[in-house]
Amino acid sequence: MPLAADPHTPASPPSAPGRGRTARHRAAVVATLAALVLPAVVGGSPVAAHAAPATTVPPASALPATTAPATSATAVTAPAPAAHSAAVPAPLALDDDFYTPPDPLPDGADGEVVRWREEPRQLSARNYLVMYHSTNATGHDVPVTGRVLVPGTAWRGDGPRPIVSVASGTRGVGDSCAPSRWLDYERPFIEPMLLAGWAVVVTDYEGLGTPGMHTYVVGQSEGRAVIDMVRAATNLPATGLRAGGKVAFSGYSQGGGGAMWAGELQPDYAPELDLVGVAAGGVPADLTEVAESLDGQVGFGFLLLAAYGLDAAYPELDLDSYLNERGRETFEREKDACVDVTLTHAFQNIGMFTATNPLRAPDWQARLDENRLGANPPDVPIRLFHGTLDEIIAPGQARTLRNEYCAAGAEVQWEWHVGEHVSTMVTGAPGVVAFLDRRFRDRPFLVHC
Questions:
Q1: Which of 69, 80, 159, 195 is nearest to 441 (CA)?
Q2: Where do the record's region annotations for Disordered lie (predicted)?
Q3: Which among 48, 125, 296, 435 is least buried, having the fewest CB atoms inside 10 angstroms?
């Protein structure tokens, strides 16, 4: 139940500093961007992990049901992350054939498992790599991969162990960037969730790991992948997870968009899920406004990734017809790149890569509008948070999303964080875990509208 208290959270963020492009300012913001992308490249080339062979499974309807042992209903507070976490196993090699789907892809319902294998524990949790069916933005059946983490910690609340589908932040567009290969970004969220006894599932999204270009920031695809990751986890008996337990979606940045899209799509796409909450930060709710704010700024590289992603999702957009020679060379060079490539594009602009700006074309605008959040607020409580100085995802459009949800009658817990994009992810993690803990335990929570 919500608490109808108002903590007087300001409606608008404090004024950001001026946009002067002095050498000192540029150095500072590039350093900030480096802090965002360097974790993805630290550690060198991927190294093959020792894992059991992949197992192709029959349709979910043919799988035996599993029952998890009953647990105590004693309530506990979600613990803080351990001071010294277990080492994360080496990532999979790029040529690992697990990520190549059967050809042809067998028929299957959304969330039905195509293949899976158990791998060495990650973050002290049982660890499963899964390929499953999902539906993309144009309604086609596509294979998607992801991870299922089941902690040794018992769930001490009511009902089956809850599941959080964590949508990952920007990794890039190349297959080697897939979240299932590197669970680094989301550790501030995932570790306390596992310690609380919740299962965590992490999708790779469409085209990230599996063949084809990644449909980066295309919410209609990402939201379904986030939802179907939950279905896949409960369709796999080895996990011990049961359908019918409480579910939540969570994410930051690209993942914030994926989580919110999952929340908006769930009532029609997956009404069988017992969704109890969505927690999302740094949400790119309005792709047009985000793109305009990035053009010529430190995070311009993310705009290029978004153009690649939209073109991958909607081939009729024909990005190539808008590119100049430099743009075509850049696209060809970066089609397998990870997020660190954005560092090379700081303070560039769309005119450097295009003969005509595609984002102003009517067909591009129509697809951007299709992927704008706010039209269908989730039926469950929402926690939104955003950095007042976010230089990647414009704060103004996040405030607009909150206002639209509130006007539609949604229960929204809102929080500004004084900080930029990267630091807000870290400072926002404890609030996410606390909010979801209250939702899983049916405890009162604070709302701002």
A1: 159
A2: 1-25
A3: 48
Does residue 104 have a cis bond before it (omega within 30 degrees)? yes
Residue among 241, 11, 277 at smallest CA distance from 148: 241
The amino acid sitting at 394 is A
Tokens 């990532």 correspond to 91
Assigned token pair, 324: 């100049």
State how far the Cα of 123 lies from the Cα of 306, in Å rounded to an integer. Answer: 31
- Are 221 and 313 in contact by the 8 Å Cβ rule? The answer is yes
Instruction: Find out whether 222 and 260 touch, Cβ atoms under 8 Å.
Output: no
Q: How far apart are CA 165 and CA 146, in angstroms?
A: 10
Tokens representing 258 are 């994926």
Q: Does the fold of domain 72-285+376-446 match that of domain 22-40+287-369?
A: no
Per-domain residue ranges of the chain: 22-40+287-369, 72-285+376-446
Give the Cβ contact number of residue 293 at 10 Å: 20
pLDDT tens across 303-353, in order? 999 999 999 999 999 999 999 999 999 999 998 889 989 999 999 999 999
Q: Are 181 and 92 in contact (CB under 8 A)?
A: yes
Which CATH architecture is the domain 72-285+376-446 placed in?
A: 3-Layer(aba) Sandwich (3.40)
Q: 120-142 pLDDT, tens per residue?
A: 888 889 999 999 999 999 999 99
In whole angstroms, give the CA distance from residue 316 to residue 314: 5
Tell me if 4 sits within 8 A of 410, measured CB to CB: no
Asked if residues 200 and 130 have their Cβ atoms less than 8 Å apart, the reply is no
Residue 165 forms beta bridges with which residues? 201, 249
Q: Which CATH class is domain 22-40+287-369?
A: mainly alpha
Task: Report the DSSP pairing between strands 199-203 and 2-3.
Answer: unpaired
Q: DSSP E strands: which ranges in 367-418?
A: 382-387, 412-417
Q: Are strands 2-3 and 445-446 parallel, antiparallel or unpaired?
A: parallel
